[in-house]
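Entry type: protein chain
Record version: 2
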Amino acid sequence: MASIYSSSSSAVSTALIISLAVSFFMAASAANFYQDIDITWGDGRGKILNNGELLTLSLDKASGSGFQSKNEYLFGKIDMQLKLVPGNSAGTVTAYYLSSQGPTHDEIDFEFLGNLSGDPYILHTNVFSQGKGNREQQFYLWFDPTADFHTYSILWNPQRIIFSVDGTPIREFKNSESIGVAYPKNQPMRIYSSLWNADDWATRGGLVKTDWSKSPFTASYRNFNANACVWSSGSSSCSSASPSSTSSNGGWYSQELDSTSQERMKWVQKNYMIYNYCTDKKRFPQGLPLECTAS
């Protein structure tokens, strides 16, 4: 039998090895914050610890802190585990997002709005395409995000953007270019995160101010994974990707929500969504945004 399959199996093996190598390269950034991340501001308030396995951002009255990914990406599935500022976090915002640069930038946002001890965080999401945002959806979480690490994921492919928490989808933004809605698909984006003071608006519309006697405030990060198309020197690491090669990366490039995932998302939106721009008729008296009324 070996002789029958030897020539074809060697070609298949070579193809498989190449495919796995590409897969490994695309997901290689899972390993180490030193390899993946640059701390960009905060004058020492951002720290990489435990041989690159843990990253912390801190905020005090003088400054917050932030980081960005070394790589730019054009589509991918991005996972990060976060443990948010505990206790009285009122006035603070922990932002974790994908963004390009410039006045017509694209952006996919998670923002965690702090609150008084015992009151829930608000998870704020938004999508910008070609500089236009105003697509906010906000949620409470069904757990205490300060007690342990939880996984916050962005799946971004040419058809849709899916926000997930611990594998449960909470929001889907579909590509609606066919009805004239811009979609992020041409601008490579970096991952950014920051911890900063926003007590002019973050907690109860700015009524609750940051209690600096509780500072420094610290958020922690681990297990960053970018299973994504890396953009470098004007080309994508996935430019020759076919459905077979993306399937080795979990199929994220063509992934959509199955019926079970849709039911889970409906459950979150029914029980934990506290604001949806698509139902805010007072805000849009001329009519809701086009993507809100698309079937």
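Comment: The helical segments are 2-27, 33-36, 243-247, 259-272, 290-293.
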